[in-house]
Amino acid sequence: MKNYVVPATIVNTIFLGLLVPVFSFSLAPIPSDPASFNSWAHANLVSVRNRRGDISNLDPALVTAEEHVVIIKVRNDGSGQFRTVTDAIKSIPKANTQRTIVWIGPGIYKEKITIERDQPFVTLYGDANDMPTLTFDGTSRQYGTVFSGSVTIYSEYFMAVNIIFENSSPMPKMGSMDGQAVAMTIAGDKAAFYNCRFKGFQDTLCDLHGNHFFKDCYIEGMADFIFGDGKSVYLNTEIRAVWDQGGVITAHGRTSESETTGFAFVHGSISGVTTGKTYLGRLWRDWGKVVFLYVDMGACIHPEGWIYYGEYRNKGPGSNLSGRVKYSKKLKDAEARPFLDLNNLNASAWLLPPPHLL
């Protein structure tokens, strides 16, 4: 990622509403009180089976896929059907029509994993008490930034639960032009991540394209470590800046004012080393859009905050707006409201809760 330009023309452009809901059924907005998360999730993240016949708003292909669930066990000790995740993924038929849960046992799996576009309805599932690590050490020098991901997802209706995604490449040197090393590239539409961890340094999570939902996740890195042109909500996600010389958390790549993509971080926290100070975000392309709402920001945040974007009712020492750059914006209630509404991801058509296998 390089050659970034921050034109003056982008001011007052990033707070447009997101996509208008297509369905009459609406999910309740994300609550402002974290104590309400559990009741909100119980009421809004509902499996096909528990909808009691009220499935008219769900994508028909998804309903069909959830009727017959296939479970594939991966264990690196040989006690499963496969020893590697790669071999398990290869066993999934092209044009897959069934929810296929790849149940991964504890341990470290050093593989470069790809789920292709014609392999929808795949879930990677681990044990919350002993999460498996999917890791590789690819860099942009070898593969290019986007394709360096330890795990790359092109398919629709992907889900990951209790998985650590890691790029094990070493921290790049200051000024390095080929140190980008992605842990996860998500380029498929309608994807959900629950209780997952993303670990790396530069460009950790490539949120490239599509509608995505992250809940109770952890993301760490040093520079541009959440980047792409995805349209995503990060709910109750912990962000950790690990570079003692500063860094940038987000780099969004919206390419025009008419696009509806953007990153919304709702609740959760930001922490990290405080010696260098970290920026909340900068543009990857001219019309990038990122907002933080109700986030607890630690002292690691640079007082200027942005190379651009917006904030709403955050807290903590890093949320003080008095030192922000002049083109940052404190969102009004009406401007913040679209980012709290999962219907703007068309989530009523595809978002399901994680399965429970244990």
From TrEMBL:
Its EC number is 3.1.1.11. GO terms for biological process: cell wall modification; pectin catabolic process. Gene3D superfamilies: Single-stranded right-handed beta-helix, Pectin lyase-like. Keywords: Aspartyl esterase, Hydrolase. Residues 73-338 form the Pectinesterase catalytic domain. Belongs to the pectinesterase family. This is pectinesterase. Pathway: Glycan metabolism; pectin degradation; 2-dehydro-3-deoxy-D-gluconate from pectin: step 1/5. The keyword Hydrolase applies.
